[in-house]
Amino acid sequence: MTGLTSKGAATRDRIVRAATELILDRGVTGMTLDEIRVGTRTSKSQLFHYFPGGKSELVGAIAGYQNSRVMAAQQPWLERLDSWESWQGWRDAVVAYYSNLTHKYCSVTALVNDVAPTEPELAAQVSAYADQWREDLAAGLRRMRDGGLLRPSADPERLALTVFASLQGGLLVMQSQDDIEPLAAVLDGALVMLRAYAAEDGAAGSKRGTART
C-alpha cells in the first residue's frame, strides 16, 4: 500500500504482524475479520482503511510478510549455494527455522491453500513467491554446475524442482505429524540426490558438505 505516512506504515505493519500470528495458529478459514480486528486491537474502520480489499488483501500482506521471514531465515546460505558446504548450511538453516515455530500453518502455501482456489490473484501471488524460492535453488545449482561440482549433463531447473517439491512435502507431513523429523529426512534425502549428480572431481573434493543420513 503506497502513500502512507511513516506512522501509517508502522500501524499497517503492526496489524500485519499481529494478524500473522493469529492466522498462522488457526488458518485463513479459521479466522473471521471480526476476530482479527479484536486480536489486533484494531477498529473496523481502521482495518478497512489499511486493507480496503478486506480479508483477501490482508491475507496477501500476511503471505508476503511470512515469505520474507522464511527467506531471511535461509540467509546467507540461499544466496551462496555454490558448494556442498553451502547446501548443508542451507538444509540446517531451514530445519532450524521450522524447528523453532509453534504454528500449525507454518508454510506460506499451507497458509492460503483453503482460499487460493477462489482467490486467483492471491494464488498467483503465492505462486510467485514459490517460483522465486525455486529459482534461488536453481541458481545455486547452476553455479555448482558452472563451477565443476555438478556434471555438465545435470539439469539445475529439474533438480531444483525436485528439492523444492521434497521441501514442500516435508512441510506438509511435518505439519500433520507435529514433528520436525519428516522435514529433516526429506532434506537429507534431497542432498543425497544432488550428490548423485556430482562431477567426479567435485565428488572427490571436500567431504565436509556430505549430506547426513
From TrEMBL:
<dbReference type="InterPro" id="IPR001647">
    <property type="entry name" value="HTH_TetR"/>
</dbReference>
<keyword id="KW-0805">Transcription regulation</keyword>
<dbReference type="Pfam" id="PF00440">
    <property type="entry name" value="TetR_N"/>
</dbReference>
<keyword id="KW-0238">DNA-binding</keyword>
<dbReference type="Pfam" id="PF21993">
    <property type="entry name" value="TetR_C_13_2"/>
</dbReference>
<feature type="DNA-binding region" description="H-T-H motif">
    <location>
        <begin position="32"/>
        <end position="51"/>
    </location>
</feature>
<keyword id="KW-0804">Transcription</keyword>
<dbReference type="InterPro" id="IPR009057">
    <property type="entry name" value="Homeodomain-like_sf"/>
</dbReference>
<dbReference type="InterPro" id="IPR054156">
    <property type="entry name" value="YxaF_TetR_C"/>
</dbReference>
<feature type="domain" description="HTH tetR-type">
    <location>
        <begin position="9"/>
        <end position="69"/>
    </location>
</feature>
<protein>
    <submittedName>
        <fullName>TetR/AcrR family transcriptional regulator</fullName>
    </submittedName>
</protein>
<dbReference type="InterPro" id="IPR036271">
    <property type="entry name" value="Tet_transcr_reg_TetR-rel_C_sf"/>
</dbReference>
